[in-house]
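for the record, two folds in this file. i put them one after another cuz i was lazy. first one right below, seq on top, structure tokens after. the second one comes after a little note so u can tell where it starts
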Amino acid sequence: MSLTERQKKHLRGLAHPLHPVVMVGGKSETPEKLQAICKELDNALQAHELVKVSVRVGDREARDQLFAELVKGTSSEFVQRIGNMGVLYRARKDKPKIILPDA
């Protein structure tokens, strides 16, 4: 599922007041740690559908790479990134809380 710009705008509005649920530090490049982070993020997405993630690693390319790995590892959609914060979305399979606007 790919989000349209209208849907992303709606999700950005919902994510604005949220605080980060998952925080990633600088020593998380090992596959074992990344797998643990993905598992924690997967649980957060199942509970909330829309989560903010704080990634405090190196430069912009390193952050973008880590966000891409988190999205891939959790089968979620990337909504936005501002600085160290990223917003991820994944609808629940049963009884989604967030209703997206039509494309």
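(here's the note) second protein begins now
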Amino acid sequence: MAEISKKKALLIMLAGGAVAGFVNGFFGGGGGMIVIPLLTALLKTEKKKAHATTIAIILPLSLISGAVYLFKGAAKLDILAAAGGGVIAGGIIGAILLNKISNEKIAVIFYIVMIVSGISLVLFR
């Protein structure tokens, strides 16, 4: 497959970012499930770089969405604080492990998480 132009890549990133932002803000998460396939499949980014880039993208997006939810009274600060500690610890562990696992294993783990997430949405909605 031929490499895409910088202009087309920029348009893909802008559109994908808008969709990821909407999904993350609307559902309270899930933007990474949009960004990772976008980076790997369409923009041919190496899987480890795609996952690391996605985390860097989703962090400010989640902070902004979380602030809006808090401001509107739709989130509880005590739950946010408690879960936030776990998220920080898990994020550090995940970032360390990302560098130690092969791209193929990362892809399999990602696909399993996507499938389990989809099934849980259907069964436990």
